[in-house]
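Annex B. Sample input.
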Amino acid sequence: MSQPDESQDRIRVAIVLLFVIEHHLTYSGAGIVGLILAVTLNTFDTDHKISIDIYESSSELSEIGAGINIWPRTWQIFQEIGPGLGEALKPFFDHLPDLELRAIFEVRKADQKDGFKVRDVATRGGALRIHRADLQRCLLNHLPFPSNRTVPQNSLCTLHLSHRLIDYTESSPGSVTLHFSNQPSKTCDILVGADGIKSTIRKIFLSRLPDSEKYAKCMDPVWSGAIAALGHSGLMYFGKNKHTVVYPISGGRFINVVAAVHDLSKDGASWDGNRPWNEAVPQRELMDHFEGWDEEYQTLIKCIEQPTKWVLQRMNPLDVFAKGSVFLMGDAVHAMVPYQGAGAAVGIDDAYILAFLLTHSSTPRSISPQCLSNITAAYNCTCVPHAHYLSNLSISQGRLNTLQLPEFDSYSENDENIPREALVEVFRRAERNWSWTVSDIGEERRRAEEMLPGPVSGMNGERIVTRL
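Annex B, continued. Sample output.
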């Protein structure tokens, strides 16, 4: 089938970053999750019914961010959504994707003069670690821009820079007008808010729900009570109320370091809007937090000449990710603390499921209110519980990493008297928390498809352990 020349015959999808599909779909924010959505839409859009518009507020797509963990579950998605995408990513990994038992962290108790190894934490397949900028470049190279003839041109795709969304109006399901601060308004059939933890779309979306007062605590992210400094397979140094993870990314060209200081009394508190969420701080401030830790750890943090201090924030749980023509995904709807390395993975799951639903054989080119209702119901029923589970698991993981557990209440920071056996058991529990990384996205896809009319497709999601 030849591709139509004009987007009017397609579902227009706007992604904010931002994007449009043959059912007019818009998405906000030029982040990883939005780019994944665009790539996946194009791959699944074999009927050429999607037109994608990506809207980004900045004048260029900046290469920013730290490391991302790609787990076997996520690698399964990458293999499926982008011809050549997996091969383009492999040079950045320290090992080829497989399901061998691999250590993701060597865990050391370091908050004392003579620190010691507790145990390795290992999972099947381990973690493929990559710098966010490297992943972003690979995704951009797999978008179906007219100039990019190396990928299938199933969907139309246009990138709009310098478009800062300030509002949207939804006149009816399948009809959305986007309003920008400095550009003419645009229209779309589907609006996707992938605009991150400070999401403009989330705030508008929640304020217009029938019981909007119920979501007052979900408008803005809350402080997790932790401050982080960013700056072999991976190392975790831990002690009471503090821990640090260290691992190489981009084939060993960089070392990712995240040192976190936790204060449970601040968990769930609002962050003063007049204070920055991140700022450069003197090296001395970082070192003061970890005074008395072992020599190996002190040597490490002395290498971080200009640490950046971040407030680790998370979203209070939402029970709705989509309504009408508007869909939220990624950090815009379920920003979570980083202790499971799950935030990006769950956002990628969101993008995969929505792309599957929008390109499904039951979704017509002229998307009807009933069709939209089916898609939003399937998206909510599939993505909401999965995100909640991993968000809660990430919080629990942070408690384990910093010994913020009842059985350790009698111990203080820098305490050398905690029994080694108790620490070994803590990280056995932690290891079990990563079992989700080898689960199969096909199970969620089938659950979503069962909510759509028509026969179930032939996309059989064999268990991942038999595929890799």
